[in-house]
Amino acid sequence: MENAKSATAEEDRILRDWTPRILRTILIVSSIILVIGIAATAAQVPGYYVRRFYAVKHGHVQGSEKFATLVAHMRHGDPRSIMTIGLYILTLVPLARVAFTFFLFLKERDYIFVAATAYVLAGLIFGVMLGRIG
Amino acid sequence: MLTIVAGLFTLAIGAGFVGALSGLGGGVFIVPGLVILAHVPMHIAVGASLISVVATSAGASVAFVRDGWTNLRVAMILECATVTGAVTGAYMAGAVSPPILEMIFALMMLQSAYFSLHKHGDEIQSHSDPLCARLGLGGKVLDDAGVMRPYGVVNLPGGAVLMVVAGVLSGLLGVGAGAVKVTAMDYLMKLPLKVSSATSNFMIGVTAGAGALVFLARGDIATVVAAPVALGVTAGALAGSRVLPHVNVGALRILFVVILLLIAIEMGWRALNGI
After folding, report:
1. Least crowded by CB within 10 Å, which of A6, A98, B107, B214?
2. How far apart are the C-alpha atoms of B134 and B154, rounded to whole Å?
């Protein structure tokens, strides 16, 4: 019983130590990419951003794109692709945090919480697949 | 271009700031802000808002986790329910008509207004029920006298059911549904209010992230709106959390409730005109 309590306390300490670092690092990286993406729109042909914004106001969005295509466009400086990658990285914040806790619980052999975090991870991945099929 | 970016950024800073002060999160204010003020279609506002909720939750929860307010084990278990609901809600959002979404949003605003007026005292449950004890969900919290006291947790199944509802609302409306989450943990599971609020804030990121991933993968996120909004809401939320300890939130509560009621009326009116 005492061993179980000390293992839980150790898990808690590691989580409290590392979770803020993971959250803060990904948040800063994604924010920098988003700022670069917005700045890159100024380097595009005049009216690029305004045209896209008014298209959005009329309900037009780009639609689904393969990740490889986004990366290829980003390499050529396409601002929309840069911003989309930045937004994907931002959504990695919860994914990375859950993945971290999954491996921590696995290391501590806390199998009920391994199952819980595995379910959450699977749910997040299932969400991407569901979005892909429409 | 600068006018539009500055306008969206300012709107988002305001939403993030008020969201942090009121404890309701930025999404509750950014969706109506984009729909009513920037004339952005509802489903695009929902997608942009989900992204910004992920950002604000990550920023705000850092301090709560570090300072020990968040009950991480309760969060991990309940996230199973919120993610299930959020993926379902985000998938449904692609098929539900904007007037229906606006009407549900209006009702959600009324629930948030009621929640803002009826937060009850910070009573501490001394023992966990057998299931919660088996899962080690209890914790310790500083009471009003500054003494560290253990607390118990009860009724995990009841809390989980309400968390599925919170997840569906989050994915459908682009909000964190923090008011529903805190209600579940505070009223049903008897967690101390401060722990409920911190744990809700932590869970909101995963809930909104699940919905945001569905929107992103579907290509329903308008980057020209979502990028400045995410940055603005994050900045506003950080500013709000810095100001929070120095303002009398109780005195501002009536103002928040009035704002929520005005949003509910406007969104409800738009829904009725659109049906």
Report:
1. A6
2. 11
Q: Which amino acid is residue A20, in one-letter code?
A: P
CB atoms within 10 A of CB A59: 13
How far, rounded to the nearest angstrom, does the alpha carbon of residue A74 sit from its chain's CA centroid? 17
Instruction: Collect the ranges in chain A with pLDDT lower than 70.
Output: 1-8, 45, 134
The ipTM (two decimal places) reads: 0.85
Sequence ranges of the domains in chain B: 2-272
To which H or E segment does residue B200 belong?
helix B193-218
Name the DSSP letter for residue B34. I
pLDDT tens digit sequence for B97-155: 889 999 999 998 898 888 877 766 567 788 899 999 999 899 888 777 778 888 999 99
Residue A1 pLDDT: 47
Burial class (CB in 10 A: 0-12, 13-18, 19+), A69: exposed
Chain B CB contacts of A98 below 8 Å: 79, 206
- Name the phi and psi angles at B138, rounded to 5: -65, 170
- Interfacial A residues in 59-88 facing B (CB < 8 Å): 59, 61-65, 80, 83-84, 86-88
The token duo for A30 is 């994604």
pLDDT tens, position by position, B22-32: 767 778 889 98
Interchain contact, A124 vs B83, CB within 8 Å = yes
Per-residue pLDDT tens over the stretch B83-113? 999 999 999 988 888 899 999 999 988 988 8
Q: Which is nearest to B240 in space by CA: B6, B48, B24?
A: B24
Name residue B150's beta-bridge partners: B140
- Distance in angstroms (rounded) separating the CA atoms of residues A31 and A42: 17
Per-residue pLDDT of A44-76, as tens digits, reads: 767 778 888 888 888 787 777 778 888 888 888
Place of tokens 């994915």: B171
**Best interface-test mutation with A: which of B224, B225, B231 has the largest number of A CBs within 10 A?**
B224
pTM of the model: 0.87
Question: CA B196 to CA B189: how far, in whole Å?
Answer: 9
